[in-house]
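Student:
Attend to each token:
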Amino acid sequence: MAGSRPVLVVDDDEALRGALVEQLQVNGEFVPHEAASLADAEIKLSNGVRYDALLLDVGLPDGDGRDFCRKLRERGIKMPIIMLTGSNEEEDVVRGLDSGANDYLAKPFRLNELLARLRAHLRSFENSEDAEIKLGPYRFRPAARQLLDEQGGKIRLTDKEASILKYLYRAGQAVPRQTLLEVVWGYNQGVSTHTLETHVYRLRQKIEHDPQNARILVTDAGGYRLNP
């Protein structure tokens, strides 16, 4: 099972924010973080914590969420952003989408609908060319199956290599070898752990400065873990 996905909820309505956080925590699918203002959201987005998505209220005490969304897009932040608003007027919806938001939900909304939309946007983003993961000195682009180094050089990955990196990143912890085999290769009885170890060996030759002393793709707890 992949690791829980961090989501930042930015809303000054404490009751609604609490309900969203509680719902996001169900089944451990997401790890919600809270912000009651744009200033608080900016601090959380700048402290190095990775967020997979942002739920952003339009009307906040220190500014308009749509302007904040536009600034995030101008800074190159591409994660899915769903705007939350008290108005469903067409002009407001258009303004929200024009600011770079992926979706726009008017209050009151059904929590299950919000979660369904959130999952859909996350799936779409993961498969887009915009999806990019910071991985040590590299930027990993899963859809393109490539790593970009700090000089702009490209490292090509096979489909299986990209799948291994993507799953380990999502897990956020050590993953047993058997789990990786089942996820990446499926339930194929003809595939052994030797197959996985061969792919990990080749990956390390591509991404590690010293493959014999791995710092990015490390062996841990009977499996493998990313140290991004």
